[in-house]
Amino acid sequence: MKRIIAILTITAILSLAIGGCSVSNGQAPSSATVSTSSAASIETMAESTIASGTASSDVTTSAFDPEVPGKFKEKLGAGYMYQDKFIPMQFLYISNEKIVIAVFLGETEQIREIDRSKYSRMEITKTADFTKVEIFDVSGSSLLITLSPAEADEIQSVLG
After folding, report:
1. Are 23 and 127 in contact (CB under 8 A)?
2. In this structure, are strands 108-115 and 119-126 parallel, antiparallel, or unpaired?
3. Angstrom distance (rounded) from CA 74 to CA 62
4. pTM higher than 0.85, yes or no?
5. What is the C-alpha separation between 56 and 46, in angstroms, rounded?
6. Would you say the C-alpha torsion 40, 41, 42, 47 has a positive or negative sign?
């Protein structure tokens, strides 16, 4: 039963990622067509993702120290900090100089940043439950985070 629920969940997430249910700028797409071969490949992909996810579950949220993101915010001098809705170890920081995405896993941190002076644009994709925010610089590099709709609106007002 858990496997079926996991397959359905992953299939739904993949469907959202493909864009079948996405809403952009407040307008729903007119129609989305998924062929049976696409649906079969999504299901196969979901099953293999579940199999690989259960086989290699070395990384857990127990390695996450909840104090580290706050300390990093102070170190960066960021005025704003947002936590990803689905990846609890991923944070977005906005300071006067930089826009940073950081992922904290125990002693390891993965950081990607954009200079605030090179900020180009932002794309927001809203659904009923979450909002995908993608921030671009002038070279086309981007930072991606999933947040609540209210947080996305706040970021949009901060970055302009």
Report:
1. yes
2. unpaired
3. 23
4. no
5. 15
6. positive
